[in-house]
Structures are given as C-alpha cells and as structure tokens.
Amino acid sequence: MYDSTKTAERIKYIAKLKKIPLNVLLSNCELGINTISKMAKGKDITLSNFYKLAEALGCSLDYLTGRTDCPDVAQPKQAPEAPASGEKPEGETIPEKE
Q1: Rounded distance between C-alpha atoms, residue 91 and residue 80, angstroms
Q2: In this structure, which long-range contacts are made by residues 5-11, counting pairs with CB atoms below 8 Å and at least 24 apart in sequence?
Q3: Residue 70 and residue 31: Cα distance in Å, rounded?
Q4: Phi, psi of 90, rounded to the nearest 5 degrees
C-alpha cells in the first residue's frame, strides 16, 4: 500500500546519496519548494511529478512509491516496431477474410 511519508523519505534519501540539494532537485523538476513536505502530509502528487522526480534521481517509480525496495531502474529491452497498418507482424499470420 502506498505510504506518502515513506515516499517523501525515499526522495530525501536518494537525493542525499546523490548529493543533490532538495531545492535544486525540486527546481530542476519544476516543482514547488514545499512539494515533499506536502507529500509527507498526505497531499496528492501527480504521476507526471512522480516521473520527474524518479527520472531526476535515477530510480524507479516503484521504488519511490514503496512497491519495491530496489531503487535500480530496469533497462527495458528495445520493443519491436509496430507494423504499419495492414502489414503482417513478423512471424505471425493474419487470417484471410471470408
């Protein structure tokens, strides 16, 4: 379950580890100076703002929100390009219309 206090603490912790002052972090993310203290008090934060913080801190959204204790960001494999409309995906067949 999401715990806003834990999230605020994790943001502070990672910022400290990376030697990023909170005011600089928040400024770089275009967030207000009180964002973290409001979050710790249970105020909502948008997904977009979570993404900005995770990106700036180099950690995963799952870590910030408490879904995992591992701050590492998994590097996704390159997804194959979607075929153009009407083309068959490689290795698949499209049934003919009757």
Answers
A1: 12
A2: 5/40, 5/42, 6/66, 7/39, 7/64, 7/65, 7/66, 8/36, 8/37, 8/39, 8/40, 9/40, 10/59, 10/63, 10/64, 10/66, 10/71, 11/36, 11/39, 11/53, 11/57, 11/64
A3: 25
A4: -60, 130
Distance CA 53, CA 26 (A): 8
Pull the structure tokens for residue 70. 């591992």
pLDDT digits (tens, 9 = 90+) for 17-37: 999 999 999 999 999 999 998
- pLDDT at position 89 is 56
pLDDT tens digits for 33-72?
A: 999 988 888 887 888 998 999 999 999 888 888 888 877 7
Residue 41 has a pLDDT of: 87
